[in-house]
Amino acid sequence: MEFMFGCRGPAVWRFILIVFLGFWSQQISAQISVVPIPKTLAEGSSVLLSVSFTGRIFTFTWYRGETTQNRILLYVPSDDPPEKVSPPYVGRVRGFPNGSMEISGLTTSDSGSYTVQLQTESSQPPTATVNITVSEILGKPSITASLSQPVEHRDSVTLTCGTSSTIQTILWHKERQSLPSNDRMSLSPDNRTLTISNVSIADSGSYRCEVINPVSRSTSDPYTLTVYYGPKNVEINPKGPITKPLKSQLTLDCVTESDPDPNYTWTFNGTIKGHERKLVLTDISFRDQGNYTCEAYNPVTNLSGSASVYVTASDTSVPSVLTPGAIAGIVIGILVLVALIAASIYLFLMKGGGKSNSNEIDMKENTSNPRTDHRNPSPGRNPASQTGEEVNYSEVNFKPNAQKPRQAKPQDNKTEYAEIRRT
Ligand SMILES: *[C@@H]1O[C@H](CO)[C@@H](O)[C@H](O)[C@H]1NC(C)=O
Ligand SMILES: *[C@@H]1O[C@H](CO)[C@@H](O)[C@H](O)[C@H]1NC(C)=O
Ligand SMILES: *[C@@H]1O[C@H](CO)[C@@H](O)[C@H](O)[C@H]1NC(C)=O
Ligand SMILES: *[C@@H]1O[C@H](CO)[C@@H](O)[C@H](O)[C@H]1NC(C)=O
Ligand SMILES: *[C@@H]1O[C@H](CO)[C@@H](O)[C@H](O)[C@H]1NC(C)=O
Fold first, then answer.
1. What is the pTM of this model?
2. Which has more pLDDT, 76 or 15?
């Protein structure tokens, strides 16, 4: 057995060894891996390039890039200190016995690849490469506009989100909402610029851009876009033609849609009358009659518009509800009416009052005293007694007895008689 085994031994053993070594070396190269911890890196932070290796590590070396040329760190555990660090990295890198390296104080220029090479029992030193991306903490972007005073239906404006960073994502917002869909708006491929063509008033508003990267996001201050327009629909209130009485006052108001507010120029018959929105005419005379024109000029849009109104001064003889002339006319009319009534009453009295006059004279002669006395008692009794006395002369003949009991009570009659007697 021993012999046989010994005879066949070397070849078998060599075969087994080759297979085993081959398998083992494959295992070695498969077992090294490097991952950055954490995965997303902000500038100023640290990263551990963490090496996983199952075998024993004698020494290891870290290089910048994908090749083994620019050495960062040589780690020899038996040395004291174990790390040899290349000048640019002094103070920023540390090695660990398990092959890992920590880089602190990261900047965006540290982004890129790093390669580690291990000295192990293997004749072929296992190497591995890892990539890192260091993102900056984004500062506040700012919006600039290609045109500060765009005019409606004429201009296009481009807003640029100003940022020095290399950014994955830029988003635009209007009034804190995502950008409204509008076929006049277009974004550049990187979203850095927003172009609004042929602006309209609806495009006015506050715009913000937001920059986003894996470690931060930041939103600009609002940029207020104002789209200027007008003057449109220039009108004068009140609308013409206007007729005003002499000596009255008239205010003409020039209204229009415009941003910014326009400059106004009022002209009358070719002469400038004012530069306010309202033109006040006082104490209107015939010389104020004519065509009043308001011209509105927008200095930003460089556009102007005008409206005219014709004003006529009217004589006071034309009646109008509340003028002094009308009141005077009414007063005169009333006076005339009163005079006419008075005259007709007078005529009436002159005509049909002859008999009554003689009656009165008779009464005065006969019953002047009783009449004055009768005014003192209550008015209700007056007619009875009065007519009683007066009628006595004229009506006694018709109703000598019947009238007295019906109209007045016995007591009244007595007092009457008493009074009469008294006088
Ligand atoms: C290597 O060592 C460092 C420091 O002790 C540790 O944080 C890291 O997790 C280790 N890596 C692995 C893969 O064990
Ligand atoms: C701009 O828009 C207005 C109405 O939205 C349109 O009438 C005008 O023709 C447009 N102008 C240009 C230059 O596209
Ligand atoms: C551009 O903005 C749109 C939304 O408006 C967004 O969906 C897209 O991801 C952005 N692209 C970039 C490169 O920022
Ligand atoms: C207005 O101008 C016309 C012609 O220039 C002139 O005949 C008229 O008298 C002027 N009216 C007034 C009120 O100045
Ligand atoms: C008033 O003036 C305007 C502008 O000059 C003109 O168009 C209009 O015909 C004039 N109206 C009258 C009644 O004169």
1. 0.63
2. 76
